[in-house]
Amino acid sequence: MKKTIIKIFLLTLTIIIIASYFIFGKIFIPPKGNFNKEPIEVKIRSGLSLKAIADTLQQNGIIENSKDFIFANKIFNNVNRLKAGKYDIPRGLSVYKVMKIIVDGRTSNIRVVIQEGLTSYQIASIMRKKVEIDSVKFINLINDTSFINKLHIKPKSLEGYLFPNTYYFHWGITEKEVIKILTNEFNRNFTDSLKNVVTQQGWTVHQIVTLASIIEREALVDSERAMVAAVFLNRLKKRMLLQACPTVQYIIPDGPRRLLNKDLKIDSPYNTYIYPGLPPGPVSNPGVKSILAAINPADVNYLYFVAKGDGTHIFSKTLNKHLAAKKKFDEYRRKIRRQQRLNGTKK
Q: 177-199 pLDDT, tens per residue?
């Protein structure tokens, strides 16, 4: 009797072990084969069902059978713990390891570079391409005063407050989350001590950011930022029109491009060729160097500057000297164009 019981027990145990191997082996044992080392990019959108996620993984060749993935999640009680996001999953992993990657939310970060001097529309376009946000929603939020108030920022628009930097976002991030990250970076760089200096100078933060946004678009060389800032501040003190091209570029629909005389006559409070003082708000999103230049301008008496064509400028104190410098540059530009036409003819 004892021998029979032992035989039955051993047989049962053997069956359990074999069954466990076939059932759980599919979960814990990685598939056989030589796999390419390059990971597979998989996007799991928020709200997808377990079956939809399993099917996505099978269709991308990450797992062999979607049913194994479904079974694994059910026995480990992970059905509602799978996280949305973009994943770079190595090939040849077991179902269990794939499940763990998604449950742990080990998403791949997306590097996004926001350069100094971009407008909110340009940033929206970059974010749409990089992390697939809705650019229309992004722009609407930029101008949503109720949303802006929650960020503890006073202006009616966030243009100028989307701080340029290199960021790492996860795929699936919302428009609100992106904006909060960019504006938090602005607040981190525009410190309370800087705000106190601005107040002591008789300016508001918004005015300084507006001025910095113009400097950012005018000064291509770091060493000239404080000089450009001085020119604009000197003109403001003398109640002269700023005549800043970036403010006109901001209002033309097909910019940036070379400005035409008709552009300078556009009736807009942003047009500093016809309206005195600073424009109502920033015309780009400036970096910290332009903000510091606006707060600490160079101690010079220049009132004019003209581009030399190499990224630098000629600065002048009088209109006559400015016109002479402009004439010289116009002659140089015509010479270059003639040379380009000749080169084109030779070809």
A: 999 999 999 999 999 999 999 99
